[in-house]
Amino acid sequence: MRYNERELLSLARQPAEKAAEIRMSVPKKGSVLKKRLVKLVVNFLFYFRTDEAEPIGALLLEHCKITKEEENVFSISFIEEPERKYCFECATEEQCQEWVEALRRASYEFLRRSLIFYRNEIQKMTGKDPLEQYGISEEARFQLGAQGQ
């Protein structure tokens, strides 16, 4: 994926939907868990050393699988590279569950499915396509509906 490093750093500085210091391991380093500040911003999961302001990495939460591994542990792996797994250990099971739910809701795929669902529900209730009022073209509405079926 191509990205602009300055824009990514700017995004990392935005207010987070969720942030916490938790232990994590990255695939290249093996199973060593290190304390990191983990910050969810839109559909990016940034991770920082606890004493630094710049992120040391970022995960784009698209085409990924979020799995609860153990009571306090969840992982993120990517569909194209399932062996590339990031593990996270939370302080409590409740914190772990909150992270899993927040990460699952952060992806574009989830947001798109939600839009299609609510669009269809509104259309059933009102008989009108709610996207018309925003000037979304017939072609775009067709694509949106066709891909959701």
Automatic annotation (TrEMBL):
<dbReference type="GO" id="GO:0007032">
    <property type="term" value="P:endosome organization"/>
</dbReference>
<dbReference type="GO" id="GO:0001881">
    <property type="term" value="P:receptor recycling"/>
</dbReference>
<dbReference type="Pfam" id="PF00169">
    <property type="entry name" value="PH"/>
</dbReference>
<dbReference type="GO" id="GO:0042147">
    <property type="term" value="P:retrograde transport, endosome to Golgi"/>
</dbReference>
<dbReference type="GO" id="GO:0005829">
    <property type="term" value="C:cytosol"/>
</dbReference>
<dbReference type="GO" id="GO:0005769">
    <property type="term" value="C:early endosome"/>
</dbReference>
<protein>
    <recommendedName>
        <fullName>Pleckstrin homology domain-containing family J member 1</fullName>
    </recommendedName>
</protein>
<dbReference type="InterPro" id="IPR011993">
    <property type="entry name" value="PH-like_dom_sf"/>
</dbReference>
<dbReference type="GO" id="GO:0055037">
    <property type="term" value="C:recycling endosome"/>
</dbReference>
<feature type="domain" description="PH">
    <location>
        <begin position="19"/>
        <end position="108"/>
    </location>
</feature>
<dbReference type="InterPro" id="IPR001849">
    <property type="entry name" value="PH_domain"/>
</dbReference>
<dbReference type="InterPro" id="IPR045188">
    <property type="entry name" value="Boi1/Boi2-like"/>
</dbReference>
<dbReference type="GO" id="GO:0005802">
    <property type="term" value="C:trans-Golgi network"/>
</dbReference>
